[in-house]
Amino acid sequence: MIQIENLNKSFNGKNILNDINLTFDDHKTTVILGTSGAGKSTLLRTLNVLEKSDHGAITIDDAYVDFDKNYSSEQIRTFRSKTSMVFQTWNLFPHLSVIQNITKGPVSVLKQDKNVAIATAETLLTHVGLADYATYYPAQLSGGQQQRVAIARSLAMKPSFILLDEPTSALDPESEANVLQVLQMLSKQGQSLVIVTHNMIFARQIADRVVFLDGGKITYNGDSEGFFDSTDDRIQRFLNKRVVTD
Amino acid sequence: MWKIIIDSLPEIVKAGLQYTVTLSILSFALGLVIAIIVALICREEPQGNPVIKEIWRVVYVFLRFYVWLFRATPMLVQLFIIFYGLPSAGIEIPAFPAAVIAFSLNVGAYASETVRAALNAVPKSQWETAQTIGLSTRQTLFEIIFPQAARIALPPLSNEFIGLVKDTSLASTITIVEMFAITQQITAKNYEPLLMYTLVAAVYAVFSTLLTLLQKFLEKRANRYLNQTNQLETQK
Q1: Which terminal residue of chain A has fewer beta carbons within 10 Å of its beta carbon, N or C?
Q2: How many structural domains is chain B composed of?
Q3: Helix, strand, or coil (residue B166)
Q4: Which residue of chain A is at minimal alpha-carbon distance from B144?
C-alpha cells in the first residue's frame, strides 16, 4: 500500500501539490485525473522521488521517505525499488536491445542470474505480445511496441506498484489500443497500478478508483462510477471539456 | 630522388612509430581521462551537503580556469613553459614527459568541452529512467550514459586526435627527435628540403588517413543500433 501524508510542493512560488493525503491500495488500479498543470505528473514522479517534495512523507509497504528529514541515497534506492515508472515517451535505452532493456534492472540491480532474467524477460515479452522482438533495438520498433517493452521492463523489476505517466499520449490510435489492452490485462491480474491519463474512455474502463486533482488539491477521491456520475461543477466542467477535446 | 626517399623513409617512419605514435596515444589517453573528469565535475552542482557544495564551487572555478588557460594560449608556448620555464622554478621535467604533460593538458581542456556537450546531449530522461530502475550513479554513467555519449563525442574527439598527431611535431622544439625533427636532420645533410618536407608531410597524411579509417570503423560500431533501423527502412 502507498500512503501519502501532507505532501506539499511549490515551484517559483506556485503551489503544485497542496497538502495531499492519499492512500493507494494494493491490487487496485487508481487513475489520477485533472486538468493540465493540476499536479498529476508531479504527484506520480514524487512517488518515485524523481521530484522531491518540500514537505510530507510517503510510505510504500515497509519503505519510507520523509521529505522534512535527511535521507540517504540507499534509502531512496530501497524506496524506489517498490515502484517502477512507465513514461509518456517510454524512455527505452536506445543502445540496448529489447531483451537487454528488460534484463538490465534485474541483472544489475536485483543481481538476478542472467539466464533467469532472460527467461523471465522472454515470458514478459510474450505477455505483452512482443515475443519475436527480443533482439530488436528500440529504434526498430513503433511507439506502441516500445511502450509495451517499457511495461515489460517495469514488470521485470517485480514492483509493488507500477506508475504510468500518460502512457498512451504519444501514440497513434492503433498503438494506443494495444498498450491499453496490456494494461487492462495487468489490471485484471491484480497488478497494482497508478495511472495518469487524459483518455477518459480508458480511465472509465480500467479505474477501480479515481483521484481528481485541481490546482494541486484533491477534489475527488473515490470509486470510478462516483466520479463519472458526479454532479460537482468542477468535475462536470472537466469531463465536458474532455468530451469536446477527445 | 627515389634513392633519397628509400634511404630516408625508414628513419622517418621509425621516428614516427617511436615518438609521434607513442606521444599521440599516450597524450590523448591521458587527455581523455582529464576531459572526462573535468566534464563530469563541471556538469552539475552536487545536491545536499553544503560543505561538498562549497568544495565543488572551488574545484569548479579552478577547472574552468584551467580550461580557459589552455584554450587561450598556444600549445607551443605551453610546451616551452613546461620544458624551459619550469626549471627556473626548480621543477625539471625530461623532454618526453614534458611533451606528454603539455599535450595531455591541452587535449584535456579542449576535449572536456566535447565530452561535456556529449553528456548534455544524452536526454535527461535517460538519467531518470536509470534512476527509477535503481541503477547506481556509477552504473548509470558506465552502462547507460557513456555508451550513448561516446557515439555523439566520437567524431569531434577523432578530430582532436588527428589534430594531436600533427601537433606532436611541436615536440621537436624541446629536443625530441620525432618525425619532423629527424626530417630536419636528414635535410641538413642532403640539402633537399622540398623533397624531404613533402615526404614527411606524406607520412603524416598516411598516419592521419589510417586514423580516419579507424574513426569510420568506430563510428559504424557505435551507430550499429541506429544503422540497423536504417537497414530495416531501406528493406521496406
Answers
A1: C
A2: 1
A3: helix
A4: A93
Q: Domain range for residue B111?
A: 2-235
Q: Tell me if B229 and A140 make a contact (CB, 8 A cut-off).
A: yes
A11 reaches B (C-beta below 8 A)? no
B232 touches chain A (CB under 8 A): yes
Q: Find where cell 510474450 sits.
A: A126
Q: What is the reported pLDDT for B44? A: 82
pLDDT for B236 equals 40
CA-based nearest distance B44→chain A, Å: 16
Q: Show Cβ contacts of residue A152 under 8 Å, excluding neighbours closer than 6 positions.
A: A102, A121, A124, A125, A127, A128, A130
pLDDT digits 0-9 by tens, B49-106: 889 899 999 999 999 999 999 999 999 999 999 999 999 999 999 999 999 999 999 9
What HEC string does chain A produce? CEEEEEEEEEECCEEEEEEEEEEECCCCEEEEEECCCCCHHHHHHHCCCCCCCCEEEEEECCEEEECCCCCCHHHHHHHHCCEEEECCCCCCCCCCCHHHHHHHHHHHCCCCCHHHHHHHHHHHHHHCCCHHHCCCCHHHCCHHHHHHHHHHHHHHCCCCEEEEECCCCCCCHHHHHHHHHHHHHHHHCCCEEEEECCCHHHHHHHCCEEEEEECCEEEEEEEHHHHHCCCCHHHHHHHHHHHHHC
pLDDT, one tens digit per residue, over A59-115 is 999 998 999 988 888 888 889 999 999 999 999 999 999 999 999 999 999 999 999
Q: What is the mean pLDDT of each run of 10 residues along chain A (246 residues)?
A: 94 89 94 91 93 93 90 86 92 96 95 96 94 95 94 94 92 89 92 93 92 92 92 88 57
Q: What is the mean pLDDT of chain B?
A: 92
List A residues 87-126 in contact with B (Cβ-Cβ < 8 A): 87, 89, 91, 93-97, 104-105, 108-110
Domain at B210, CATH number: 1.10.3720.10
The verdict on a CB contact (< 8 Å) between A87 and B129 is yes
Please enumerate in sequence order all residues whose Cβ is within 8 A of that of B50, keeping only pairs 6 or more positions apart, or say none: none
| pLDDT given at position B230 | 47
Q: Which of A22, A12, A74 is nearest to A46 (CA)?
A: A22
Q: Verify whether the Cβ–Cβ distance B128 to A109 is below 8 Å.
A: no
Does B10 lie at the interface with A, CB-CB under 8 angstroms? no
